[in-house]
Amino acid sequence: MRLKNVETGWLMTMKETRRNRMALILFFVIPTVFYAVIFLITTHRPISFHLASVSQEAFVTVSQMNEALVFIGLAAVGILTSFLALHLTQKHAEVNRRLILCGYRTTELLASKFLALVTVIALIGCYVGAITPLFFRPQRFVFVLLGFVMAGDVYGAYGMFVGAIFRRELEGILFIVLLANLDIGWLQNPIYYADAQNKFIIRHLPAYFPSQLSMVSAFTDQSVLRPFLGSLAYGTILLAAALVLYSRRMRLWK
Predict the structure, then answer these.
(1) Distance from the first to the final alpha carbon of the chain
(2) Are 241 and 161 in contact (CB under 8 A)?
(3) DSSP secondary structure letters along 26-69
(4) Closest to 160 (Cα-Cα) out of 109, 123, 228, 124
(5) Pairwise CA distance, residues 29 & 68, whole Å
(6) What single DSSP character describes residue 221?
(7) Taking Cα atoms as reference points, which of 15, 184, 18, 169 lies closest to residue 85?
(8) How far apart are CA 111 and CA 245, in angstroms?
(9) H helices present in 43-140, as ranges
(10) Distance in angstroms (rounded) separating the CA atoms of residues 211 and 76
């Protein structure tokens, strides 16, 4: 992999993303709307929920609004970045094939797209993290912010994986909506996890480790090493799978 090609691809991808001003605005408007809705409809009534990554018996009692704010922040970052990753992977397929003919490698193309995605993830994650203290003070803000970024990393890699599988946008969008709504938009909420009949399924979904990372950091002083490493491993596996599929898709047949 040649770093000069990766840098050039990253710069071109960032310039193209920057030109889509409406999408960039929505990346910041949507989390704001989510937080505003949570602020308007939830109360500070105490609720208890189970944090699976701490222990099987550990229950935490916090404000309903505080728990909902952390959860909706994770959902906003994960869903937005998965759609952006899908767009970056599917768009300009023929142009990317011409770049391969000119000497680029598929690893360089995908790496440049992923670096552009990571840049946007950092911006969105930092923005969501920045508005969270306006409503409440997490116990370990930096690790809550890290959980937001890791949620974007995992679901960004998932979006690239889906984009490498499907050639058309509609199928990719439906596939992302299917998992994102079930996983980061529903089942990873600790309130549902506490009473779930089959917790094994929830623990193996993509957003499990990032959700635990932010929740544990926001409301306890327990170690977050395992959720962080799990998030990193899950994102790496999805990214590696996306690379394999993208390489086959971009292959130039004689």
Answers:
(1) 23
(2) yes
(3) HHHHHHHHHHHHHHHH----EEEEE-TTT-SS-EEEEEHHHHHH
(4) 109
(5) 18
(6) -
(7) 169
(8) 14
(9) 64-90, 93-101, 106-131
(10) 12
pLDDT tens digits, 130-181 = 898 888 889 999 999 999 999 999 999 999 999 999 888 889 999 999 999 8
CA distances from 57 to 51, 52, 60, 91, 172 (A): 8, 8, 10, 47, 39
Amino acid at 95: V
The answer, yes or no, to whether residue 254 has pLDDT greater than 50, is: no
User: Strand pairing partners for 59?
Assistant: 50
pLDDT digits 0-9 by tens, 68-120: 999 999 999 999 999 999 998 888 777 777 777 777 888 888 889 899 999 99
> What would the two tokens of residue 67 be?
């728990």
| Structure-token pair, residue 41 | 């409809």
Amino acid letter, residue 240? A
Return the amino acid letter for 176: I
The C-alpha angle with vertex 135 and arms to 133 and 140, in degrees rounded to 5, equals 40
